[in-house]
Design brief:
The structure is a single chain. About 45% of the residues lie in helices and about 20% in strands. It is α/β, with parallel strands linked by helices. The chain folds into four domains: about 200 residues, P-loop containing nucleotide triphosphate hydrolases (Rossmann fold, 3-Layer(aba) Sandwich), CATH 3.40.50.300; about 55 residues; about 200 residues, P-loop containing nucleotide triphosphate hydrolases (Rossmann fold); about 100 residues, no CATH class. Helix 5 runs antiparallel to helix 6. The termini are far apart. About 30% of the residues are buried. The model has no long low-confidence stretch (mean pLDDT about 85).
Length: about 625
Amino acid sequence: MISYVQVENISKRYGDVLLFDDISFGINKDQKIALIAKNGVGKSTLLNIIAKIDTADGGRVTFRNDISIGYLTQDPYFNPENTVIEQALESANEVIAVIREYELSIKSGDEKLMQDAMIQMDAKQAWDFDIKIKQILSQLNLNNFEAKVGVLSGGQKKRLALANVLINEPNLLILDEPTNHLDMDMIEWLEVYLQKCKSTLLMVTHDRYFLDRVCNEIIELDNNIIYPYRGNYAYYLDKREQRIQSTTSTIEKANNIFRRELEWMRRSPQARGTKSKQRIDNFYKIKETASQKSDNQKLDIGVKTSRLGNKILEIYNLHKKYDDSDILVDDFTHRFVRGEKIGIVGRNGCGKSTLLNLIMSLEQSTSGRIEIGETVIFGYYRQDGINLKDDKRLIEVVKDIAEVVSLEKGRKMSASQFLEYFLFPPEMHYLYVSKLSGGERRRLYLMTVLMKNPNFLILDEPTNDLDIMTLNVLEDYLQKFDGCVLVVSHDRYFMDKVVDTLFVFSKHGKIRHFPGNYSIYRAHRDEKERVEKLQQKKQEQPQKARPAKTPKKFTYKHKREFETTELEIGQLEEEKSTIETEISSGTLQQDELVAKSKRIAVVVELLDVKEMRWIELSELKDS
């Protein structure tokens, strides 16, 4: 096993905040590792240290000689004057340097330069690589290669940064939340790309399907200890729970012994003067164990939901178009009923956030109308967050909204208690917002939305920057929420657990209603595409020139195969329907949900093979 990186006893502190202390682990060639930790413990800082952007306060990071590193940060910076293709070709890679010279020669129009560049392209066999670069940019919806980086949105810059590190094909690929700002089709493409790429991988992600399909190992940073898990996300959850239960049990036992030994230690020196030194030494060891914190604290969202009347939200013939742009919303009508949980899916830029802004009256529609019931209290979690002033303290942010928060079953909490409820301990209450991590800011923002006791939640990418532990709790809360939920998210696991129906954006602002969660929709879409391909193949078959030969006869053996294939197709379709029902039921455990999603993909593939054979036998039978 070839070691690429050794992290030894490193520590990092920012002011009074200790991020991690004396942690160690290694990264070996060909490993694909996911790093999991709670928000605020320094995941991004740890990646910065490994990528040599930051330095540790103590310890050291040792690299294998001559390995190349590609790092996707959460906030990439580019030269705004570069074009997309110029930025993509910024690299020390020798082949990419040749491609860059070729691109510049084309722009110059100088035939001599172009000829020299083409000779170099041939010599370095760079033509295929040039095509690959443009394919990666196109897959990430960066099709205008000549656009200036300065005019790109934040999401486009993040995708360009991702393209940059993928194009360079480094030995070690470090990715910090690579699925942020990607739509679901892009995420699924990236999954396949990373599965096949030869780079060793270390990444932070909250997307659990993505984690499962890309990584074969998980390391968790918890209470300054690194815990490795060789397995998928379901395996990690099971082993983590076992670890926490074991730790809790050990601490409880130590506390019981500690109380007894403390009484003995408090006796007069004469009473214990003849006791063994070993027992005294053991007392201090037990005290150390008993003083440990059992990290079993869990966010429990139990915020009161305001009563919702009969009329909720009614949308009639909604239409939205900006000047000189495609239609974003076209003739959309829907009447919401109590308890509806709807997910919105579609490609980046198709108008998902625009629809939410129209509902919230932050934008005006071109035509159509929106009617809102008198009892509706919206809780709008915006993708770009709220403007939390860096010079405000956490307690001030909360008190600006309410001094007292109403919870379930008539309970009430003060602003300070509510901060603790959302896992902000008392020592953090007077911290400035500027000291919070990205994930902690998101958790604080979520808290400010929920403390208003909404009965209609509109969530635009709520999963960005939240840690997996917080996501699990948010999912459980939304499943039990008895108001309405309308959510945009690229996190397929989140969507599968929370929503029971979808608004699907397609071309020119058309929005289709689909009954089912994302996995069911994706299976349905794959099935539709498969059938269309089969029909296309069937139409093309008679047009193909075939060599003249004696036609085959439909034998008894063919008849038996035909009947068996027909039976197997029926069984597979029945199994597919059963799995779709199970996935949408909301009763499956996380590992079962993952297993069912994988199985449905296998069933769809088998159906494709069996139906192709059925068509062949059917044609033979009819000939």
